[in-house]
Amino acid sequence: MAQTVPATTKWWNGGKSPFNVEYGKLMMWYFLMSDAFTFGAFLISYGSIRFSSNSWPDPNHVFNAVPFFEGSHLPLVFVSFMTFVLIVSSVTMVLAVHEGHKGNKKGVIKYLFWTIVFGLIFLGSQAWEWTHLHHEGAWWGSNPFPNADGTVASTNFTNYFFTITGFHGFHVLSGVVINLIALLMTSNGVFERRGHYLMIEKVGLYWHFVDLVWVFVFLFFYLV
Amino acid sequence: MSIETTHVHQSGVSHEAHHEVHHGHHHETFLTKYVFSQDHKTIAKQFLITGMFWALVGGFFSVIFRLQLGFPDAKFPWLEDLLGEWARGGQLQAEAYYALVTMHGTVLVFFVLTAGLSGTFSNFLIPLQVGARDMASPFMNMLSYWFFFVASIVMLSSLFVQTGPFSGGWTAYPPLSALGQASPGSKVGMDLWLVSMALFVVSSLLGGLNYIATVLNLRTKGMSMTRLPLTIWAFFFTAVLGVLSFPVLFSGFILLIFDRHFGTSFYLSDIYINGQALPNEGGSAILYQHLFWFLGHPEVYIILLPAMGMVSEILSVNSRKPIFGYMAMVGSLFAIAILAFLVWAHHMFVTGLNPFLGAFFVLLTLLIAVPSAIKVFNWLTTIWKGNLRFTPAMLFALGFVSLFISGGLTGIFLGNSSLDIHLHDTYFVIAHFHIVMGVASMFGMFAGIYHWFPKMYGRYLNNTLGYIHFWATMIGAYLIFWPMHYEGLAGMPRRYYKYDIWESFKQFGTLNQFISVVAVIVFLVQILFLLNFFYSIWKGRKVTTLNPWSANTLEWTTPINPGHGNWEGEIPEVHRWAYDYGKDGKEFIPQTTPVSADESKH
Prior knowledge:
The structure holds 2 protein chains of 2 kinds. In chain A, 68% of the residues lie in helices and 0% in strands. Chain A is mainly α. The two termini of chain A are 39 Å apart. The relative contact order of chain A is 0.15. By secondary structure, chain B is mainly α. In chain B, 63% of the residues lie in helices and 2% in strands. Chain B has 18 helices and 4 strands. Chain B has helices spanning 3-13, 15-23, 30-35, 40-70, 77-83, 94-130, 138-158, 188-217, 230-261, 285-319, 326-339, 355-367, 369-383, 392-414, 417-423, 427-457, 463-489, 509-539; strands at 272-273, 276-277, 581-583, 586-588. In chain B, the strands form 2 sheets. Chain B has a two-stranded antiparallel sheet. The longest helix of chain B is centred in the first third of the chain and has 37 residues, at 94-130. Classes of the chains: A mainly alpha, B mainly alpha.
């Protein structure tokens, strides 16, 4: 925090930002709150349908495939890898923001680059998982997986899975594109001329949010 | 953290300076000044005039379906000329009737009373009253309007497709809205409706983020939050409500689109349609209602709060008295904003909702009466023993208070889950929400237009026409909606095409005729207002003083026709709250006047 301002400053008296942030960052926070409600609505819808169903497919039997290990039963291994990659991308994003604070253009470029790479690995992994599930007959409106108790499941397992992970994947894709733009702007020296790397902080907020949402998606679709 | 951080923040925050630098050498063409303008005042006018267009369309729809309700057996050949197949033989067809009712609701709720009201006045007043050169992001603000414009085009185009616009009610409940086979309006008309509404949500989000950031970050020196005019507090809470509730509607719409086109069953289960069983299983139509009303209820406050804020301001200015209970007003706005999120299921008492759960929603719903009553009493005590100036704006503000009381009281009936069993989906509900939310907010909007027209266009609206407009609309509104309470109490259901085939409702035949005749007259009076509006933009009496209403707020310190950037020199500093009327023997003391040494405290 900016500690150079005397403690007696009246933050709310006008003429300055009460949170000592520029408007774009404020808007980003409010946008993320809004987006949290979008995902919240999806996840609560999913929860309400799932808990009103008598039984539900067991994720351990659905998500048990890993690329190059066809036919093996490795529950949740691949999705753990995806989650790990996304969390690492959050770490590299933190480092990019940190380099931005130091005004180190090269550092920002390096860590943004790795964030984008990890983001793309995540998206690629998701594409593989979707393709794999599609080959098994899963899609919107079709669910080949039986309930854990052996009864025939409704299609809402796959309906919600593809809709919510798809919506999240779309957010990751947007994040990668935004990071890419930030990377190009950094390497063109836009922020250097501007004198600050505030944009990297804002982009970082979005990226961390998308990671955080994944934690919930991971929890509610794969773990419980 | 490091010194660089501090530097970063300061250079970020000081964007005030940035505006001033660019102010002088800004060459504007017709296109950048009037069409793709980034000036909040022009964007506000764009929202207002687009909203007026929609009010005309949506109001005209109600005239057509009122003709059907009042004169179910009459033939109107001109209707066939106008609507073609929809009014075969001069008689409105049932399907067209449903479509008109649906479009009337959608258009009035979203396009007129959300975009047209909050879009206009948040844009116009926030920078002017907090003392800012423009919105935090003028570009996003412009985008907000153009998203609304495109949403408007899409919605308008749905009126012209062969199967007609969506006709399943403005709430768009599935399965009717999810299945194309269910009704002609649920075919491509519904797709256009959803696309339009999704664009509208984006517009609302872009606008809302801007309003919030501007109110928090761009207040001028001395403008603490507790010195903000109540208009700004109202716009602020409105924006927060929109930013947090529209995304939930958006999620609900996405699921609906999937149900319509991608074979999912989010809202569908066990359906038998046109003699054919559908494969959908496991979904819940009630789920949609939860998602819809999680927006839908805050939405009524998104509509109402801006009107409340403007009415507070106009009542105080024209009573020449400080607003009574400023902090209580802010607190009750806050309480309403919180409660708005906790009452949505009172729209769903008869869906099979657990009565035990319903009891909590009854409690929370009735709690809204507390902040509402605080506001009403504060308005009444504000005008109490004031030197009232009965300008058209003041009359509409007083009309708002009257309507809010009348409509609010019936809300207490409807908030009870047991009474709701009888009253649900009857004309009692129609009467309630039209008075308390529809007409009342419309009155707030009219009050705002009459009051701030001089600031918008540098001219006055014609007062005589304004008085005619007020009295005809005020009396008309009560004549239209008061009788509907009786029809509703007698159990007359809403949304029906024809009532004279029901023995129980035959008695209301002439009453329905009466309502329809008044509705037509009131509609014509609104056209009079529109003529006044557009005539006065170019030919109205010119404003010659900076502060025609002798008001305290900052917008009256700008030039009569402010340019982009609002103030020519420095932005004025604020030294006091906005409501020093009749203090220490002075009629009014603008916010920019420093507090003198011998001044009494308030």
